Amino acid sequence: MTAWKGGRRKTKGRKTSGSRAAASAVGLERAIAAAARELRSTGKALVTCHVSPDGDAIGSGLALALALRARSAEVVFYSEDPVPYNYAFLPGASTVVRKVPAGARFDHTFILDLSDASRLGRGFPREGLGTVVNVDHHATGPGIGGLQVRDEHAAATGELVCRLFKAARVPISPEIATNLYCAILTDTGSFRYSNSTPGAFAAAGRMVACGAEPWRIASEVYESEPAARYHLLGRALSTLHVSCGGRFASLYVTSEMYRATGASKEMTDQFVNFARALKGVEVAAFLRELPDGRFKASLRSRGGIDVSAVGVRFGGGGHRNAAGAELPGPLDHARATIERVVAEVLGCTASSV
Predict the structure, then answer these.
(1) What secondary structure does DSSP assign to 261-323, as a single string?
(2) Strand runs labelled E in the chain
(3) Do both 50 and 189 map to the same domain?
(4) Considering the domain boundaries, does residue 351 fall inside one?
(5) Long-range contacts of 306-312 (CB under 8 A, 24+ apart)
(6) In this structure, what DSSP letter does residue 13 have?
(7) What is the pLDDT of residues 204-258, one digit of tens each?
(8) pTM for this model (two decimals)
(9) Mean pLDDT, rounded, for 311-322
(10) Alpha-carbon span 243 to 226, nearest angstrom
Protein backbone atom coordinates (compact mmCIF):
# COMPACT_ATOMS: atom_id res chain seq x y z
CA MET A 1 0.00 0.00 0.00
CA THR A 2 1.32 3.44 -0.87
CA ALA A 3 0.29 6.80 0.49
CA TRP A 4 0.78 10.21 -1.08
CA LYS A 5 1.47 13.32 0.86
CA GLY A 6 2.61 16.72 -0.34
CA GLY A 7 3.27 15.39 -3.83
CA ARG A 8 5.81 12.83 -2.55
CA ARG A 9 5.02 9.13 -2.45
CA LYS A 10 5.83 7.22 0.70
CA THR A 11 6.07 3.45 0.91
CA LYS A 12 4.86 1.88 4.12
CA GLY A 13 6.46 -1.16 5.67
CA ARG A 14 9.80 -0.95 3.85
CA LYS A 15 12.42 1.56 2.80
CA THR A 16 13.12 2.18 -0.86
CA SER A 17 16.69 2.23 -2.14
CA GLY A 18 16.35 5.99 -2.50
CA SER A 19 15.31 6.42 1.13
CA ARG A 20 18.16 4.18 2.29
CA ALA A 21 20.63 6.26 0.29
CA ALA A 22 19.20 9.44 1.76
CA ALA A 23 19.43 8.05 5.29
CA SER A 24 23.01 6.99 4.63
CA ALA A 25 23.87 10.47 3.37
CA VAL A 26 22.34 12.07 6.45
CA GLY A 27 24.26 9.69 8.69
CA LEU A 28 27.51 10.53 6.91
CA GLU A 29 26.96 14.26 7.27
CA ARG A 30 26.27 13.82 10.98
CA ALA A 31 29.45 11.79 11.36
CA ILE A 32 31.46 14.44 9.52
CA ALA A 33 30.01 17.17 11.73
CA ALA A 34 30.81 15.16 14.87
CA ALA A 35 34.38 14.46 13.65
CA ALA A 36 34.81 18.15 12.88
CA ARG A 37 33.92 19.01 16.47
CA GLU A 38 36.50 16.51 17.73
CA LEU A 39 39.13 17.92 15.39
CA ARG A 40 38.56 21.46 16.68
CA SER A 41 38.73 20.38 20.32
CA THR A 42 41.85 18.21 20.43
CA GLY A 43 45.06 19.29 22.11
CA LYS A 44 47.09 16.12 21.62
CA ALA A 45 46.41 13.76 18.76
CA LEU A 46 47.70 10.52 17.29
CA VAL A 47 47.32 10.18 13.52
CA THR A 48 47.88 6.83 11.83
CA CYS A 49 47.15 4.82 8.68
CA HIS A 50 47.47 1.27 7.38
CA VAL A 51 50.68 -0.73 7.04
CA SER A 52 52.47 -0.39 3.67
CA PRO A 53 50.97 3.08 3.22
CA ASP A 54 50.05 4.39 -0.20
CA GLY A 55 49.58 7.93 -1.46
CA ASP A 56 46.07 8.25 -0.05
CA ALA A 57 47.10 7.05 3.42
CA ILE A 58 50.19 9.27 3.62
CA GLY A 59 48.62 12.29 1.94
CA SER A 60 45.47 12.20 4.08
CA GLY A 61 47.43 11.69 7.28
CA LEU A 62 49.93 14.47 6.57
CA ALA A 63 47.13 16.87 5.65
CA LEU A 64 45.36 16.14 8.93
CA ALA A 65 48.58 16.43 10.95
CA LEU A 66 49.37 19.80 9.36
CA ALA A 67 45.84 21.07 10.02
CA LEU A 68 45.99 20.02 13.67
CA ARG A 69 49.42 21.58 14.19
CA ALA A 70 48.13 24.82 12.67
CA ARG A 71 45.60 24.81 15.52
CA SER A 72 48.49 24.40 18.01
CA ALA A 73 47.73 20.75 18.71
CA GLU A 74 50.55 18.36 19.56
CA VAL A 75 50.53 15.63 16.90
CA VAL A 76 52.23 12.27 16.46
CA PHE A 77 51.85 10.72 12.99
CA TYR A 78 52.70 7.04 13.41
CA SER A 79 53.23 4.61 10.54
CA GLU A 80 54.34 1.00 10.95
CA ASP A 81 56.24 1.26 7.67
CA PRO A 82 58.35 4.15 6.34
CA VAL A 83 56.99 6.75 3.95
CA PRO A 84 57.50 5.36 0.41
CA TYR A 85 60.30 7.05 -1.54
CA ASN A 86 57.96 8.69 -4.06
CA TYR A 87 55.95 10.41 -1.31
CA ALA A 88 58.92 11.72 0.67
CA PHE A 89 58.52 15.10 -1.05
CA LEU A 90 55.14 15.71 0.58
CA PRO A 91 55.06 18.54 3.15
CA GLY A 92 55.50 17.10 6.63
CA ALA A 93 56.72 13.67 5.47
CA SER A 94 59.86 13.94 7.58
CA THR A 95 57.73 14.16 10.75
CA VAL A 96 56.24 10.66 10.38
CA VAL A 97 57.52 8.34 13.11
CA ARG A 98 57.63 4.54 13.26
CA LYS A 99 57.33 4.29 17.03
CA VAL A 100 54.87 5.93 19.42
CA PRO A 101 56.56 7.25 22.58
CA ALA A 102 56.10 4.78 25.45
CA GLY A 103 53.28 5.74 27.80
CA ALA A 104 51.99 8.50 25.50
CA ARG A 105 48.38 9.49 26.01
CA PHE A 106 46.24 11.34 23.50
CA ASP A 107 42.98 13.26 23.48
CA HIS A 108 42.11 11.85 20.06
CA THR A 109 43.32 9.18 17.65
CA PHE A 110 42.55 9.65 13.96
CA ILE A 111 42.77 6.40 11.98
CA LEU A 112 42.82 6.99 8.24
CA ASP A 113 42.31 4.86 5.14
CA LEU A 114 41.57 1.54 6.84
CA SER A 115 38.60 -0.07 8.56
CA ASP A 116 40.20 -3.19 10.02
CA ALA A 117 42.36 -2.95 13.15
CA SER A 118 44.57 -5.80 11.96
CA ARG A 119 46.16 -3.40 9.45
CA LEU A 120 47.29 -0.88 12.06
CA GLY A 121 50.60 -2.61 12.65
CA ARG A 122 52.16 -4.32 15.63
CA GLY A 123 53.55 -1.10 17.12
CA PHE A 124 50.19 0.64 17.35
CA PRO A 125 49.39 1.41 21.01
CA ARG A 126 46.26 -0.08 22.54
CA GLU A 127 45.88 2.36 25.43
CA GLY A 128 45.79 6.11 25.89
CA LEU A 129 44.07 6.67 22.56
CA GLY A 130 41.33 9.03 23.74
CA THR A 131 38.41 9.44 21.34
CA VAL A 132 38.97 7.33 18.21
CA VAL A 133 37.87 8.80 14.87
CA ASN A 134 37.98 6.47 11.85
CA VAL A 135 37.97 8.10 8.39
CA ASP A 136 37.87 5.62 5.53
CA HIS A 137 36.41 4.86 2.10
CA HIS A 138 36.78 1.08 1.88
CA ALA A 139 33.69 -1.06 1.37
CA THR A 140 34.92 -3.90 3.58
CA GLY A 141 35.96 -4.12 7.22
CA PRO A 142 34.07 -3.56 10.47
CA GLY A 143 35.38 -0.07 11.16
CA ILE A 144 37.37 1.09 14.17
CA GLY A 145 36.26 3.11 17.18
CA GLY A 146 33.00 4.74 18.06
CA LEU A 147 33.06 7.66 15.60
CA GLN A 148 33.31 6.48 12.00
CA VAL A 149 33.35 8.69 8.92
CA ARG A 150 33.05 6.04 6.21
CA ASP A 151 31.86 6.38 2.63
CA GLU A 152 32.67 3.67 0.11
CA HIS A 153 31.56 6.01 -2.67
CA ALA A 154 34.32 8.52 -1.92
CA ALA A 155 37.19 8.24 -4.40
CA ALA A 156 39.79 8.45 -1.65
CA THR A 157 40.09 9.02 2.05
CA GLY A 158 41.61 12.34 1.00
CA GLU A 159 38.24 13.33 -0.44
CA LEU A 160 36.59 12.66 2.94
CA VAL A 161 39.29 14.66 4.73
CA CYS A 162 38.49 17.56 2.37
CA ARG A 163 34.87 17.37 3.50
CA LEU A 164 35.94 17.12 7.13
CA PHE A 165 38.11 20.24 6.79
CA LYS A 166 35.22 22.13 5.19
CA ALA A 167 32.94 21.21 8.12
CA ALA A 168 35.64 22.17 10.63
CA ARG A 169 36.41 25.42 8.77
CA VAL A 170 40.07 24.45 8.42
CA PRO A 171 42.07 26.89 6.27
CA ILE A 172 43.67 24.99 3.37
CA SER A 173 47.32 25.99 3.03
CA PRO A 174 49.32 25.08 -0.10
CA GLU A 175 51.03 22.36 1.97
CA ILE A 176 47.73 20.80 3.04
CA ALA A 177 46.42 21.13 -0.52
CA THR A 178 49.47 19.33 -1.91
CA ASN A 179 48.92 16.36 0.38
CA LEU A 180 45.22 16.06 -0.34
CA TYR A 181 45.67 16.44 -4.09
CA CYS A 182 48.26 13.65 -3.98
CA ALA A 183 45.86 11.45 -2.01
CA ILE A 184 43.10 11.83 -4.60
CA LEU A 185 45.44 11.66 -7.60
CA THR A 186 47.00 8.37 -6.58
CA ASP A 187 43.84 6.58 -5.43
CA THR A 188 42.08 7.38 -8.71
CA GLY A 189 45.05 6.17 -10.75
CA SER A 190 45.69 9.69 -12.05
CA PHE A 191 41.92 10.03 -12.61
CA ARG A 192 41.79 6.90 -14.81
CA TYR A 193 39.88 4.54 -12.48
CA SER A 194 36.12 4.17 -12.19
CA ASN A 195 36.18 6.05 -8.87
CA SER A 196 37.08 9.25 -10.73
CA THR A 197 33.74 10.82 -9.83
CA PRO A 198 32.61 14.44 -10.09
CA GLY A 199 33.30 14.68 -6.35
CA ALA A 200 36.89 13.56 -6.85
CA PHE A 201 37.49 16.12 -9.61
CA ALA A 202 35.79 18.85 -7.57
CA ALA A 203 37.91 18.14 -4.49
CA ALA A 204 41.10 18.00 -6.56
CA GLY A 205 40.15 21.27 -8.24
CA ARG A 206 39.69 22.96 -4.87
CA MET A 207 43.15 21.78 -3.83
CA VAL A 208 44.66 23.26 -7.00
CA ALA A 209 42.89 26.54 -6.23
CA CYS A 210 44.48 26.39 -2.75
CA GLY A 211 48.01 26.00 -4.09
CA ALA A 212 48.57 22.35 -5.12
CA GLU A 213 50.70 22.09 -8.29
CA PRO A 214 49.51 19.12 -10.38
CA TRP A 215 52.53 18.95 -12.67
CA ARG A 216 55.02 18.97 -9.78
CA ILE A 217 53.11 16.39 -7.74
CA ALA A 218 52.75 14.06 -10.74
CA SER A 219 56.44 14.45 -11.54
CA GLU A 220 57.48 13.53 -7.99
CA VAL A 221 55.11 10.58 -7.74
CA TYR A 222 55.49 9.06 -11.20
CA GLU A 223 58.65 10.44 -12.79
CA SER A 224 61.33 10.23 -10.10
CA GLU A 225 61.98 6.50 -10.15
CA PRO A 226 65.17 4.77 -8.96
CA ALA A 227 66.82 2.42 -11.47
CA ALA A 228 66.29 -0.51 -9.08
CA ARG A 229 62.54 -0.26 -9.62
CA TYR A 230 62.92 -0.82 -13.36
CA HIS A 231 65.28 -3.72 -12.86
CA LEU A 232 62.71 -5.30 -10.54
CA LEU A 233 59.87 -4.54 -12.95
CA GLY A 234 61.72 -6.30 -15.74
CA ARG A 235 61.97 -9.45 -13.65
CA ALA A 236 58.32 -9.20 -12.59
CA LEU A 237 57.12 -8.84 -16.19
CA SER A 238 58.99 -12.01 -17.10
CA THR A 239 56.63 -13.90 -14.74
CA LEU A 240 53.48 -12.70 -16.50
CA HIS A 241 50.90 -15.49 -16.74
CA VAL A 242 47.59 -15.22 -18.62
CA SER A 243 44.74 -17.69 -18.22
CA CYS A 244 40.93 -18.01 -18.25
CA GLY A 245 40.89 -17.35 -21.98
CA GLY A 246 42.80 -14.11 -21.55
CA ARG A 247 40.53 -12.76 -18.80
CA PHE A 248 42.96 -13.21 -15.89
CA ALA A 249 46.61 -12.15 -15.72
CA SER A 250 49.09 -12.36 -12.87
CA LEU A 251 52.72 -11.66 -12.07
CA TYR A 252 54.88 -11.86 -8.97
CA VAL A 253 58.01 -10.73 -7.15
CA THR A 254 60.03 -12.93 -4.79
CA SER A 255 62.49 -12.13 -2.03
CA GLU A 256 65.30 -13.31 -4.30
CA MET A 257 64.29 -10.69 -6.89
CA TYR A 258 64.50 -7.96 -4.25
CA ARG A 259 67.99 -9.09 -3.29
CA ALA A 260 69.19 -9.36 -6.89
CA THR A 261 68.00 -5.86 -7.86
CA GLY A 262 68.46 -3.97 -4.60
CA ALA A 263 64.82 -2.88 -4.79
CA SER A 264 62.42 -2.52 -1.86
CA LYS A 265 58.77 -3.48 -1.43
CA GLU A 266 57.37 0.02 -1.99
CA MET A 267 58.94 -0.02 -5.46
CA THR A 268 56.32 -2.59 -6.53
CA ASP A 269 53.52 -0.04 -6.31
CA GLN A 270 51.40 -0.17 -9.49
CA PHE A 271 53.03 -3.38 -10.78
CA VAL A 272 49.59 -5.01 -10.83
CA ASN A 273 48.41 -2.47 -13.40
CA PHE A 274 50.80 -3.83 -16.00
CA ALA A 275 48.82 -7.07 -15.87
CA ARG A 276 45.46 -5.31 -15.87
CA ALA A 277 46.48 -3.20 -18.89
CA LEU A 278 46.49 -6.25 -21.18
CA LYS A 279 43.65 -6.20 -23.68
CA GLY A 280 40.88 -8.58 -22.63
CA VAL A 281 42.02 -8.93 -19.03
CA GLU A 282 39.19 -8.46 -16.53
CA VAL A 283 41.04 -9.36 -13.30
CA ALA A 284 44.75 -8.94 -12.54
CA ALA A 285 46.76 -10.10 -9.54
CA PHE A 286 50.22 -9.21 -8.32
CA LEU A 287 51.88 -11.41 -5.67
CA ARG A 288 54.66 -9.97 -3.53
CA GLU A 289 56.62 -12.25 -1.21
CA LEU A 290 56.72 -11.18 2.43
CA PRO A 291 59.66 -11.76 4.79
CA ASP A 292 57.90 -14.70 6.46
CA GLY A 293 57.27 -16.54 3.18
CA ARG A 294 53.64 -15.53 2.77
CA PHE A 295 52.49 -13.52 -0.26
CA LYS A 296 50.68 -10.20 -0.39
CA ALA A 297 48.14 -10.26 -3.23
CA SER A 298 47.06 -7.04 -4.92
CA LEU A 299 43.95 -7.43 -7.07
CA ARG A 300 42.53 -5.15 -9.75
CA SER A 301 39.52 -5.52 -12.02
CA ARG A 302 37.60 -3.85 -14.78
CA GLY A 303 33.92 -3.05 -14.87
CA GLY A 304 31.56 -5.04 -12.68
CA ILE A 305 33.97 -7.68 -11.36
CA ASP A 306 34.08 -7.31 -7.56
CA VAL A 307 37.58 -8.29 -6.41
CA SER A 308 36.84 -7.24 -2.83
CA ALA A 309 34.89 -10.51 -2.60
CA VAL A 310 38.10 -12.34 -3.48
CA GLY A 311 40.06 -10.40 -0.87
CA VAL A 312 37.50 -11.17 1.83
CA ARG A 313 37.89 -14.90 1.15
CA PHE A 314 41.45 -14.63 2.49
CA GLY A 315 40.84 -12.21 5.35
CA GLY A 316 41.51 -9.09 3.28
CA GLY A 317 39.20 -6.69 1.48
CA GLY A 318 39.08 -3.36 -0.32
CA HIS A 319 36.97 -1.96 -3.12
CA ARG A 320 35.03 -3.46 -6.02
CA ASN A 321 37.87 -2.80 -8.48
CA ALA A 322 40.87 -2.80 -6.11
CA ALA A 323 41.47 -5.15 -3.20
CA GLY A 324 44.14 -7.12 -1.41
CA ALA A 325 44.82 -10.06 0.88
CA GLU A 326 47.64 -12.23 2.20
CA LEU A 327 48.13 -15.85 1.18
CA PRO A 328 50.29 -18.64 2.60
CA GLY A 329 53.28 -19.77 0.55
CA PRO A 330 55.06 -21.31 -1.16
CA LEU A 331 54.81 -19.39 -4.43
CA ASP A 332 53.24 -22.14 -6.53
CA HIS A 333 50.56 -22.69 -3.90
CA ALA A 334 49.79 -18.96 -3.63
CA ARG A 335 49.54 -18.57 -7.41
CA ALA A 336 47.30 -21.60 -7.81
CA THR A 337 45.07 -20.51 -4.92
CA ILE A 338 44.46 -16.99 -6.19
CA GLU A 339 43.86 -18.20 -9.75
CA ARG A 340 41.38 -20.83 -8.57
CA VAL A 341 39.28 -18.29 -6.66
CA VAL A 342 39.43 -15.69 -9.44
CA ALA A 343 38.38 -18.37 -11.93
CA GLU A 344 35.33 -19.06 -9.77
CA VAL A 345 34.43 -15.36 -9.89
CA LEU A 346 34.94 -15.17 -13.65
CA GLY A 347 33.18 -18.49 -14.27
CA CYS A 348 36.09 -19.98 -16.16
CA THR A 349 38.55 -22.85 -15.73
CA ALA A 350 41.83 -22.23 -13.95
CA SER A 351 44.99 -23.45 -15.63
CA SER A 352 47.85 -25.23 -13.89
CA VAL A 353 50.51 -22.70 -12.87
Answers:
(1) HT--GGGGTTHHHHHHTSTT--EEEEEEE-TTS-EEEEEEE-TT--THHHHHHTT-EE-SSEE
(2) 2-5, 8-11, 44-49, 74-78, 108-112, 131-136, 147-150, 241-243, 248-253, 283-289, 295-301, 317-318, 322-327
(3) yes
(4) no
(5) 306/345, 307/283, 307/345, 308/139, 308/140, 309/345, 310/283, 310/338, 310/341, 310/342, 310/345, 311/140, 312/140
(6) S
(7) 999 999 999 999 999 999 999 999 999 999 999 999 999 999 999 999 999 999 9
(8) 0.86
(9) 87
(10) 32
Residues 202 and 241 in one domain: no
Q: Provide the number of structural domains found in the chain.
A: 2
Structural domain for 92, as ranges: 2-222
Closest C-alpha to 326, from 306, 340, 311, 339? 311
Q: Specify the CATH number for the domain of residue 329.
A: 3.10.310.30
**How many C-beta atoms lie closer than 10 Å to residue 312's C-beta?**
17
Radius of gyration over every alpha carbon of the chain, rounded to an integer in angstroms: 21
Label the pairing between strands 8-11 and 2-5: antiparallel
